[in-house]
Each structure stands twice: as structure tokens, then as C-alpha cells.
Amino acid sequence: MPRAALIDRRPYLLLSLVLAIAYFFASDGRVPGLWLIAWKGSCVGVLALYAWDRGRGVDGALIALVMALGAAGDIGIELSLELGAGLFAIGHIVAIALYRRNARTKIVSSQKLAAYALLLGTPLLTVMIAAPQEGWMLATIYALALGMMAASAWTSRFSRYQVGIGAVLFVVSDLVIFAREAERLDPGIAEWLVWPLYYLGQFLIVTGVVQRLRGERHAPDAA
């Protein structure tokens, strides 16, 4: 029954949501650094556990790995921006593999246009935001992987209202980070935007993928 499935998955998703909301309000410097970093990583780390527990087959393992790399990136970025970006980039590559394995067979023109906009627009906006600041070329290379991930998500067979929009939110979150680092956006505003956009994006991605995979294996127990 759908209700039974909801109860079964609730501990992981609810725990992740509680951790993420609490982290957002705790990340004001009052919690000791190492504890806060571990806390941050646990939010998406629990989503990785959810994906591993609820996912099925190779695709289930891939989305769990994507979330695990996201959690590692959340920790790494607090230690070094380059380390975090590298871990996220690896996660994007794994996500691209997942989405290409599950590409839609028919894509209408408007959907293709949106995918190209994500693929090309993400690195282009990054150049406009970051150049000629130090590190703008590395940011652009990262943005290429980010844009490819979002475009692949948009053209995959997974729900665009979950996985597609989740990937777009991830893109927007990173663009906000680029704008903050380039001093084109007030850090205070950026701090209010980055975490909610990023976490909601990850949440939508993992639940969208898992729901589709479970729906195909056990239709009455989908999600």
C-alpha cells in the first residue's frame, strides 16, 4: 500500500529534512566548526542511505553514489573550495551516466531547447559572473559538467517536476556561489539562498529517481 511505503521510507527522508532545516539555522557560527561540517555532510548523507535502501539495481546504486559524493562535497567545500568542487564534479559525471542510461526516447523541441539552454547557458553565465576573477577558468570547467548534468537530467525519463527541477535548482545554487565568490552578490543574501536551493535540489533529485525505479519494480509500493 502507498501508505505503508510512506511509513517505510519516512525515517530517512524526515531525518534528512530535520537535519537540513536545523543546519540552515545553526550555520551562523555558534556551532563549533568540525561539528557543523559533519552536520552539513549528514544532511545529504542520509539521502544517500535512503537511495541505497530504496533504490533498485544499477540505477539505484548510481543515485546512491551521486548523493554520497554530494555529501562528501558538502564536507570538502568547507575545507577547500577546490576540493568540494572536485567531489561535486565527480558526482555530476556519475549523475550524467545515470541520466544517459535513462534517456527519453522522444524529446519535443521545447524540451531540447531547455536542455541546450542548461548545457550552454550554465558555463556561459559562469564566465559572465566569474571572469576575470582568479579561478574563473576552473569554475567554467566545473560549470560545463554541471550544465551537462542538468541537461541530462532534463532529457531523462525521470520526472522533470522532480529530477529536472532539482537539477536546475542545483545549477542556480552554484551560480549564486560563483556570484558570491566574485563579489557580485552580497554574501548575506547568498547565504540565505545557497543551502535551501542546493538541498531542495538534491532532495527532489533523489526522491524523483527512487520513486521511478520503485514504481517500475513494484507499482503498488512506488515511492
From TrEMBL:
Membrane topology: Multi-pass membrane protein
InterPro entries: TMEM86B-like (IPR012506)
Entry's localization field: Membrane
Protein origin, superkingdom: Bacteria
Keywords: Membrane, Transmembrane, Transmembrane helix
Transmembrane regions: 12-27, 33-52, 59-77, 83-101, 113-130, 136-154, 161-180, 192-210
A Pfam family the protein falls into: YhhN
Record carries keyword Transmembrane: yes
Keyword tRNA processing: no
Family recorded in the similarity comment: Belongs to the TMEM86 family.
PANTHER family assigned to the protein according to its UniProt record, in alphabetical order: GH04784P (PTHR31885:SF6)
Name of the protein this chain belongs to: Lysoplasmalogenase
Organism in which the protein naturally occurs: Blastomonas marina
